[in-house]
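Re: beginner question about structure tokens

> Can someone show what the tokenized structure looks like for a real chain? I only ever see the sequence side.

Sure, here's an example I had lying around. Input first:
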Amino acid sequence: MMNDLLQEFRSKQLKEETEKILDSQCPFCSMQCKMQLIESRLGDRISYKVIPAQNPTSEGRLCIKGRNAYEHAVTAERIKTPLLQVNGEFVPISWPDALHVIKEKFTAIQQQKGADAIAVYGGGSLTNEEAYLLGKFARVALQTKNMDYNGRFCMSAAASAANKAFGIDRGLTMPLADIEHAACIILAGTNIAECQPTILPYFTKAKQKGSFIIVIDPRETATARLADLHLKVKPGMDAALVNGLLKILIEERHADLSFINARTKGFEQVRDHVANIELQEIESSTGIPIGQMRQAAAKFGQAKTGMVFTARGVEQQAHGSMTVHNFINLCLVTGKIGRMGCGFGAITGQANGQGGREHGQKADQLPGYRSIENRQHREYIAKVWGVREADIPTKGVSAYELMEKIHNEQISGLFLMGSNPLVSNPNAEFVEQGLKKLEFLVVVDMFVSETAKLADLILPSSSYLEDEGTVTNLEGRVMHRPAARKPPGKSKHDWQILCEVASVFGKAQFFPYQTSEDIFNELRIASRGGIADYYGITYERIRREQGVFWPCPSPDFPGARRLFEDSFAHEDGRAVMVPVENYHPQEETNGDFPLYLTTGRVMSHYLTGVQTRRSQTLALRNTESFVEIHPSTAQKYQIENDALVRISSQRGSIVLRSKFTTKIREDVVFVPIHWGDKQNVNKLVSPNLDPTCKMPGFKMTAVNVSPV
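And the corresponding structure tokens:
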């Protein structure tokens, strides 16, 4: 009996010694699902198990990416020491040597060509603390105006439209919990079933309660299968389609005139604009029958509550900002915003795509969503940072324009953190040519990405399991991500790297932080009084309340779950409607390039795949890229199923394997975005930019296809 008890005790002790529970949060999409990672050790063997954890957003759900995210964090492919490129080979060096090289190279460039000859390029997956610090690093440590980030290609169209319409840009104007109360929902250009799978139950619950769901997408995606009505619009013609819906809504007297008169301006111009549009013209240009337009308008107009959601399908266009504004017009004309079951939502893509664009990574922006061109805003931030207002650089250029400056040799040095522009930028061959012209390229990453292969120096960063900080999810809920493990080898947190580089430039006094919480507390002050006001949010409060919505101007403020209940964020409290043209794609098809190429994601991969392709489980699900093509289109161009196909645009060509589907328009082909090198679809994409927000037209490229 005693031996049995002793054995039981030893077994329990062994288990306690070899099993560790790590609280964490998915590093991928904007849902930011919580999880626990159970790390078990038995001798030299380590195994992992992932358990979903409850939080108000994901409600205990995880998708396949989240369940396998840890694989890229623990892989042997991680960079664990600084790497200097010497004669075409990467050689390990010490941190002091790496910092010395950066100081030497960047100082020489700036002394010869000026401060703005160095650029900084960030990413939408950085924590709020690191996004904030990167902007400060560019403007205080390097004193350059050339600063932007990859979120320019994700949320800029929706952000500019929301700012113009509402006076504030927060992804969703309401909490996700409101979705089930919407009687009619429009999902435009979003495939949430693959991009953000854990959000899908909110919509299925709404459907179960009787909600009528309208999906606008050229493809019959997994999301479109949820729809009661699928409008298979021609790529790039979303704004025109909305004009048709607005015309019907107004003419059929579904406009909420009391809401319009009390809380908006610009309705008369919109009304007069759509009155002059012929529905037959809309039908011809969009490919949507008038009968379907009437059905959609009637369902949305007659519903007592309703919501409109947009994503990259309508935003990644060279007129994406105005297209999104037209979708916002739908909400405003019908009064479906600022109350339960109503609202507009731009579904944020990247992990911290929301917070990343609020605190200073954009060329025209300072923390708190302040304008870098506003004298009062500059003076406030200068006081927080302890610098002179005159020492803060002026407005720089957008992400792709920055690449153009590099190509034109106006920028000679680049500090890149948390991004892979060689794959994610449009006109990727052009971008690669430019990056190769740089005198010195520093890349901060966990892996040797396609861009990092071109680096002169790679600095190893920590993963989501190791890096504490906050992120702001698609609802506008600020969430805390704990650090569960120590960084491997000599890798460091992004914020530590920024502090150490700033120090060698003699700016250590401006970067005195010892923890991520130190940075967040400065961010709170920097954002105070701005559009994105985080002042009332603290680490302790986030932990206690499982996230806090912004704006939150004081510690006793509950956080703004639902925006615009009483007024909008403009000075006069009114939302702004604007008439929108029937935009046509800037790159039209023709005899040489007769098809439209559109791009997007697949469920098992994330962005350029740098992390998910290092996860064995995820990589095995999609080992190569592909092109979706309608069988009738394939027959016309003598293409067989599962065969190699050459896709060409004005900018180049790539070879992919064909995948037949009847769930796509016959004039459209689809390619996912997650692969680089010879499968990089962005080699084909046009560099045409939205004039307002500088978003490239990723979703509309004229191409031809041919068998290999």
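Each token stands for a local structural state, so reading them left to right follows the chain. Residues 52 and 61 are 6 Å apart (CA to CA).
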